[in-house]
Specification:
Blueprint: H1 4-16, H2 24-38, H3 40-57, H4 61-73, H5 77-98, H6 103-112, H7 117-131, H8 137-142, H9 148-160, H10 163-234
Length: about 240
């Protein structure tokens, strides 16, 4: 787009001549090429500014909250991120409780290691609920982050006194689901990239061939015109 395509523009303009315009799709591709070539430094600076501004934004409370919420809700990757967060929460809490750490202290540690503000707020709600002598399941259900199956299993574990074991089972289940989801996404990544590159490269090739087709048609029309003139002269 920076070195090769501009050379084609010079060739096409010299070959067509006579004020003939290039096909619209070819002009579109050439316009993108010129924009990249003429503004590549400005584009890189703007890209760097956007990246820096985004990093500063997500370090603020509002920005971090919005970004973490987006990660949980975004298409395709959102469910995987949510499962990872649930697995981390249940495994960390289960490990700490089974090791004899008091539940309130364990919840504080889980909040600090959650890696997601939304999940951390849910853990804070659980901490306050346990501190007041209430159950763990109520704030988990109110957070709208944890699936009903997780809430039901935690409830059963809390009532039967087997909370650590139930938390570890949930973590194992979600770890397996995450592994399967990542494997499926990885297997789909290669064909998606191939199709994407094929569309990009194919579009550029078509854009470069359209002027050649137009040139061939022009040459053909000119040859037909000469043949007709020759026939009329012979008559």
């Amino acid at each position: 787009m920076v070195f090769v395509i501009p050379k084609f523009k010079e060739i096409f303009e010299g070959a067509l001549g006579n004020g003939q315009e290039l096909p619209g799709f070819t002009q579109f591709v050439l316009g993108i090429s010129e924009m990249i070539k003429d503004h590549i430094v400005r584009t890189m600076i703007m890209f760097a500014i956007v990246v820096i501004a985004f990093n500063i934004f997500i370090r603020t409370k509002i920005g971090r909250r919005l970004f973490d919420k987006f990660k949980l809700k975004m298409p395709l990757l959102g469910p995987v991120v949510s499962k990872v967060a649930i697995s981390r929460f249940t495994r960390t809490l289960g490990t700490l409780v089974s090791s004899g750490v008091p539940i309130l202290q364990a919840l504080t540690i889980v909040k600090e290691t959650s890696g997601n503000v939304i999940v951390g707020n849910a853990v804070t709600a659980v901490h306050e609920s346990v501190k007041e002598g209430e159950t763990i399941t109520a704030p988990l259900e109110a957070s709208n982050i944890f699936p009903p199956m997780v809430i039901s299993m935690v409830d059963v574990g809390e009532q039967t006194g087997a909370l650590p074991e139930m938390l570890m089972k949930i973590a194992d289940n979600y770890d397996e689901e995450v592994d399967n989801a990542v494997s499926a996404m990885t297997s789909l990544l290669e064909p998606i990239m191939i199709v994407f590159l094929a569309v990009i490269v194919g579009s550029i090739v078509i854009a470069m061939f359209l002027p050649l087709i137009k040139l061939m048609e022009t040459v053909g029309d000119a040859d037909n015109g000469k043949k007709e003139e020759t026939k009329s002269t012979d008559k």
